[in-house]
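Recap from last week: sequence in, structure out.
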Amino acid sequence: MIRIIPNCWQKFLSQERPSNHVARVFNDVLLQRRSHARGRFAAPCNQILFTMSEATRKAANWWSDPQSEAPETQWVRVPGISENMNRRATGDPAIDWIHHSAGLLRSFAKPIKALSIGCGFGIIERTLRRRDFCQLIHGVDVAETAIENAKKTAQAEGLDGLTYEVADLNTAEFPADTYDVVYAHASLHHIFQLEHVLDQIKQTLKPRGLFVVYEYIGPSQMQFPRRDLELADTFLRLIPERYRKFQRREGIKKEAFRKSLEAMNSSDPSEGIRASEIVPLIASRFEIRHFRYVGGTLLLLIFNEIAGNFNENDAESMRFVDALISLDNFLLDSGVLPSYHVYMACKKTDNPMPMQTRNVLPPAASVFRTQDLQALTVAPRPLGLIAAEPNPFRADSQGEGRTTVSWLTYATNSVEVHVDAPDGPLFARSGPGIFSQETGQWVRDGTKLYLQNVSRGLDLTAENTIAVITLRQQE
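Predicted structure tokens:
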């Protein structure tokens, strides 16, 4: 597993690129991580590097303010939106993701022990405890003020079994085989060292433990594509101005939510820093048992900063809300727009390369430039029975189960392999992103690409991995 950025990436990330603020912020965190010695911290984290980079300190300060995301500005607070996201996540507008995930814990022996990462002011932990879904819950967040607030609120409500700790998730290490379930609600998209925290989550879960994720997975650092913004602008302007008044500043909202990289980095450099990589990195470590795109693409862009103008007692305002919710669903379901949010429930597995029952993997973003990639290794070569039915390598094809995987083309987000048998080519496929559940998929983990081959209705298994490809930067 790639736990930190390989040495070959360092030169790339340290180059001055005026337009690449994400790389510079990421590099700042990495260099801080390597330049300080580890220090002790209180249990249950074993060791935590508590000296934070400037970027992490900014994020901690931002999220220590209860008004950093005031309710009247947040698009999810618009009446009807939560119910729609519930329906997409669980199939029932009255059942939220927390309740749904609890159903997956029914076979677990009580007391159920949970870890909540990026817990903020403790809303998720209190909800879990009030509903008695988990009995022992530990919350971790980098924002000290938020943690203190969470402790006091839990105590005031008389909720037992809740503990909290200040920790930087980019470097925190958790004890092995400790928790039945780990929750990540709107927190992973703030983490620079995603590989590290996901490896720690996998380590700290008990065998067959559950990892529950409800996350923003849209464009990193909220740098939305022009097409998405232009669509949102068009429909925003159809809303009367009285419903487009900013809630925390003067003025009328005239265009969809936009924020430059400079503005993002000056307030919270962690916001969405690697959001687009979350799903692929999870899928390369956990078995995904429940996966739903919950939408919110147009809705985020349109309703952010003006949410408080819409009230369920105002019939006219709700007509616009209902229409835009329906439009968001239609554009997502028809493939015109991607979903910016996801709900996932995953199981810990001993398989070093987990296989999925459906293809949930979009192309993973890379800091490599296409021309800098080359094939370092390709394996197996030639070798391997493919355990699939129908088996494309049947004896009657004279292949007798033996295959050779050879390169045709390769690039940052597209790798094509050609599988040969003694009687000639059998098939060629491209990925990631182009593969479907009927044919196979790519799983990417850092600089490794795994090609899995499956047939319709057949679960992916380790035996179906026909190529492991390692990429490196040219000297």
